[in-house]
Each structure stands twice: as C-alpha cells, then as structure tokens.
C-alpha cells in the first residue's frame, strides 16, 4: 500500500504566500508525522490530510506569534468564561504553549465542519480523545524545536498597500487553519465585498472583529473600505409601524414579547385581530398554512419575527405548547439547523435556559447545555450572528 504523503503545495495552500519559506520544510515534515499517527478512519482521507496540516499550522501559529489561536481562546474566555468549549482545561494548560486540549478541539472542529455527509460529531467522541493523545508528543516536541516563521511575525499589524490588505483579509476569511473549516461550503460563492458581512471561524467573528483583536493597533484597518460596516438606516415609516406592532402585541400579552400559537388559524387570527393587519393574503402569510407550533417574537425597533414548527421545543414557563417528549427529539436542531430558529429568538431561548431538552443522544447531555450558545454560534455562523 502506497504511503500517503503531504506535499509543500498543500502546506502553502493554507498560507498567505506562494513561495516556500525557510521554516516550511520543518512544518511539512511535522504534518507528515502527524498523518502517519492519524488513525481517524471515520474521517475520509482528504480531511485527515487537512487535519494534519491544520495541527501543524496551529503549532506554527503558537511558535511564530501569528495570534489566531490566542485570539480564539481569549475571545472564547470573554464570551464564556473559559478558554475552550466542552472540556475543562487542566491546571497545566498554558495559553502560550501547545496543549492536548487545543489539539482535541482542532480535531473536532475539522471533523464537524468536514464537507462529507455525517451527523453532529460529539466533541467527547472517544476517537477524538485518543487521537489528541496520540498527537500530543509530536506537537510538544515540535513546540520545543520548531523554527519561527518570520513571515508571520507582526502579520496583522500593518500592510503596505490596499492590495496587501485585501490578500491578508482573503486569507483570514477562509484559508487559515482556523477559518477554512467553517468556510469550506461557502467560500466559492462569497463575493469579495460579502466577506465583510459573513462571520467566519469557530466563534463566527466578522473580519473586522478578527482584525480588532489580532492587530496591535487596529486603527490602520479602518482604512479598508467596507471592512467596518454600518447598520442600514431604517425608514421612519417602518420604525413607526414597528413601534405600533410592539404596543399592540404587548398590550395583548400583558407585556410579554413572545407569543405561542398552535396552528395557522391562530396565527392568522393574531395578525388580523391583535396586530390589526389587513385580512388578505398579502398580510396573513398563507404560505405557512401547512405549518403549526408558531412562535412570534416582537422587538420595538426590529418589529416582529416568526418561527414555525418549533414551539413544542421551547420550555418557556408561559408556553402552553411546550412538549418535553417532542423537545427531546427536536430541540437540538434549533442549535444546529440553519433558518429553523431566527437568531433573536434563539439567543433568547439560550439565555433564558428554554432549551433544556436539547441533546445529541436523546438523553441528558450536560455538555450541550453548558455549551449551547457556542454550538449555535459555531454551527450556524451567519444564521446565529445575522438579523
């Protein structure tokens, strides 16, 4: 059987330059050592190859001070009070060194985001734990002896031309070891100007959020046109209609901003009776006639959003449609299925603990509850961050 080998061109494909650098030979060798130690047979070979390149690039990042991994763990700590999801880091975990727990996350991230047909991968999968342990001596040795890649030192701090800034942002958006997995399904379809409004990476950060955290002085990046997007101006007429909808909605619900409706007839009655919308097909959403278990959420500024077929999953004390058995089967989908639950409603459900039945196994999964917001952020990306 022919031995599988990773080549320099594959290493260069996840780097911001095309000519081989002096340090690259070391990291390609490391990636091949990782590949020889990789036993994840459930992961197809193209993704095993990518995984080993990513782990080698993670070591290079830590050694060379690129800052991607440090940015991820610092931002995860800011959001969730701990540097990594799913597993409690041990006392000997160090933010500026390589760690087995980091490698386990990279394995899960690569596997979970891999573009072959598979279900949600448990981050506690025994194969992930075993593989991280097998990689550990290789990355620890590399950390001690690997050369710095001088091309990555201070990489985010400056750029000489607009074209250089564009190249750096293009690489950051979907070609680094930490952002490529999340962008694989979309990268070919994202127009250059849309990169600024599509979140990327395991924490679904917008490009300006990345540069704000990576650059020693991020003010230079404000020169890049379109990187920092502004909120679109809402016409006064729309604002007034949103305020009116809010007042009518909350007057009917005794101040509650969420309403649960069992079927289309109840939805139509709410729209025409409570919100006083015209009783015609332009206003009563006849396309939802075949659906049930509706949730309406109102916001004074944004207006009203609607979710269908999800009310049974939401354990709001004021929700008469909540059904624990159905929720145990379906609630996890709210965290992982695009467009099933609008972002504002999903954020409220997570913040209020209204998805206690969400689990991967159908049984109580404490790691799901403890990491529900991260799971949604990581999986849904734009459908978590968007309006």
The total number of structural domains is 3
What is the helix/strand order? HHHHHHHHHHEHEEHHHHH
* Rg for CA atoms: 24 Å
Q: Give the helix proportion (percent range).
A: 40-55%
- Beta-strand segment tally: 3
Estimated structural class? mainly alpha
The rough form would be described as globular
Q: Biggest sheet, open or closed, and with what strands and sense?
A: 3 strands, antiparallel
Provide the spatial order of strands within the biggest beta sheet: 1-2-3
In round numbers, the mean pLDDT is: 96
Distance between the termini: 52 Å
Q: State which percent range the strand residues make up.
A: under 5%
What are its keywords?
387 residues, mainly alpha, 3 domains, three-stranded antiparallel sheet, 5% strand, globular, DUF3843 family protein, DUF3843
